[in-house]
Specification:
six-stranded mixed sheet, binds iron/sulfur cluster, 24 helices, alpha+beta, 569 residues
Length: 569
């Protein structure tokens, strides 16, 4: 079928066996690609321990990857998370997905454990396992330097080697499969890096139809204030959200004890762009280019990272925040979990962090070379539990919450709780309608109607992650335009409803896989603090504790709309 290569790669690192096989048709028709394909592929092994040799690490592309569809350079990485124990996918940008498609593969599944550190090197149909011992102990920047000229690559740093529970996989030294600790799965396999390059072309069934769909998407992008506006993503990146969350008094501060941080303006998107003279960059096939890099090569952090190294830890020194972000990328660690685990440690030990101490703790975690570093490398929930204070881990299902305080956006509260991969903003992102007023504004301090909106958004985002497109574009375009692009690429008639059905199938399968690992409704909940403590209210904005009964009623509505009865709660 056009839009797919029709071939997948399986690599067993224990036996050093490499097999190329036809991508099963059901993966394409019932699960689209990316996240959907990965979830279906892990189905029969999801209860294995994360470090079991048979546990697969899956790279999967979608039908739009490598085509002219806007934001067609993304892909998914999937396994079971060492941090949460749930099935876990990360959508990642850069150009690895494009190279993978050009090399001829829809998916790559890696199992087994190598006898020493290895590099999986792929050039079109030629697949080689190489000794990577010279790369062992290196950060991801060092690996990027060593692999320059080898196409695109995915690598772990010291954190992945040391099995830090929130280790990430870093692509081309910049783009991260950040959350959930998939870098530790890669580390358990002694796979230091995957390099890939290809020269094939992706077949498109109806090039004219794709051109028309692309033009429609581009028209919507060009006229969107959120994307190409004066203060939009293209100009400032996601750090534009610093000012917005500050003004709404919903920036998590001091481990979520407060929701307002006076020093936030010192590291706003505007301040960082001016200070670092940041330029635009971004993923392959993307016209938005929301990533920002300073004149000296500094990677400007995403909103979540800057806010959590900033407000969540009570720090406002922009240069140190950028350095903390650089360190996390180099060690290969999720910035959200790292910053949140340190904030949890600060609260438990009644410490006020300094920026020097922050950088020191990050190094201890990444290197796992001190008792405290090793304790924090377990993530906030295990750390706080070991200290007898599990309630001070600001996490859902063990995944640390990102930088939107749920007391300031009730749809976000529900979406955090129901998320299949834990405390994540990307499964439904109600911030879109509660704060950004897209596609229409909703009352952020109400649960009314949120259950249905969250359910639809969860299904939609499962589709986006499976195509594999970028969620940011959906601030402007809709699934209507993308359905036309998919139909043109694959030549298979598809529309919004049929795609949403696939999204629902993926979501329900993820939930079922989590149930097999013991997850129940008891895990669809928020930390106690949000129901008992007030945030930082002002004269005009009250950030009240969440009403527990209203939350539970909304969650019950959500289960009813999903059709979840006692068996899958
Ligand atoms: S909008 Fe940003 S994250 Fe999304 S594809 Fe473009 S550059 Fe990548």
């Amino acid at each position: 079928m056009a839009g797919y290569t029709g071939k997948s790669l399986r690599v067993d690192l224990s036996a050093r066996e490499i097999a190329v096989y036809d991508t099963p048709e059901v993966l394409r028709t019932a699960f689209l690609g990316g996240r959907g394909m990965g979830v279906a592929m892990i189905d029969d092994r999801v209860t294995l321990p994360c470090d079991a040799p048979e546990m697969p690490l899956i790279f999967a592309t979608g039908p739009l990857v490598g085509t002219a569809a806007p934001t067609s350079g993304r892909m998914s990485v999937l396994s079971r998370s060492p941090l949460t124990g749930t099935v876990f996918d990360c959508s990642v940008g850069g150009r690895f997905g494009t190279e993978m498609k050009k090399a001829g593969f829809d998916t790559i599944e890696i199992t087994g454990v190598a006898s020493g550190w290895v590099l999986l090197d792929i050039e079109n149909g030629s697949v080689t396992l190489r000794d990577a011992s010279p790369l062992a102990g290196k950060g991801t920047a060092g690996v990027a330097q060593a692999l320059a000229g080898a196409g695109s690559h995915a690598a772990i740093g010291q954190a992945g080697e040391n099995r830090v529970k929130f280790a990430s996989i870093v692509f081309d030294g910049h783009y991260c499969a950040g959350r959930g600790g998939l870098g530790a799965v890669m580390g358990a396999k002694r796979l230091k890096a995957v390099a890939i390059r290809g020269s094939g072309a992706v077949q498109v069934a109806d090039p004219e139809g794709l051109k028309t769909a692309r033009e429609a998407i581009m028209r919507l992008l060009r006229t969107s204030p959120a994307i190409f506006g004066e203060f939009g993503l293209s100009e400032f990146g996601t750090a534009a959200l610093v000012d917005l969350m500050h003004a709404r008094r919903m920036e998590p501060t001091d481990n979520f004890r407060k929701t307002f941080f006076p020093g936030a303006s010192e590291y706003s998107g505007y301040a960082m762009r001016n200070h670092f003279k940041a330029k635009k960059t971004g993923c392959a096939g993307c016209p938005v280019l929301c990533k920002k890099v300073g004149a000296g090569g500094e990677v400007i952090p995403e909103y979540e990272s800057v806010s959590h190294f900033g407000a969540l830890n009570g720090l406002s020194d922009m240069e140190r925040i950028v350095e903390a972000n650089r360190l996390c990328n180099d060690y290969g660690m999720d910035t959200i979990s790292a910053a949140s685990t340190i904030a949890c440690h600060n609260e438990i030990n009644e410490k006020q962090l300094t920026s020097d101490k922050l950088l020191q703790l990050l190094a201890e975690i990444g290197n796992a070379n001190t008792p405290l570093g090793r304790a924090l490398a377990e993530g906030s929930f295990r750390y706080a539990s070991s200290m007898g204070r599990p309630e001070l881990s600001m996490s859902v299902k063990g995944l640390e919450l990102p930088a939107y305080d749920p007391r300031g956006a009730y749809g976000m509260a529900l979406a955090y709780a129901t998320s299949n991969r834990g405390g994540c903003h990307l499964r439904a992102y109600p911030i879109s309608h509660e704060i950004l007023r897209k596609p229409v504004a909703t009352d952020r301090f109400s649960f009314e109607g949120k259950a249905r909106i969250v359910k639809i958004a969860e299904d939609l985002n499962a589709v986006i992650d499976s195509l594999t497109a970028c969620k940011f574009v959906f601030f402007a375009a809709s699934l209507e335009e993308y359905a036309k692009a998919v139909a043109a690429v694959t030549g298979n008639g598809c529309d919004v409803q049929s795609l949403l059905k696939v999204g629902e199938r993926i979501w329900n399968l993820e939930r079922e896989l989590n149930e097999r690992n013991g997850f129940t409704a008891a895990h669809d909940d928020l930390p106690l603090r949000f129901f008992t403590e007030e945030g930082s209210s002002s004269a005009n904005i009250r950030i009240a504790p969440l009403d527990r009964d209203a939350f539970l009623k909304a969650r019950e509505n959500y289960y009813r709309i999903r059709g979840y009865h006692s068996v899958n709660r």
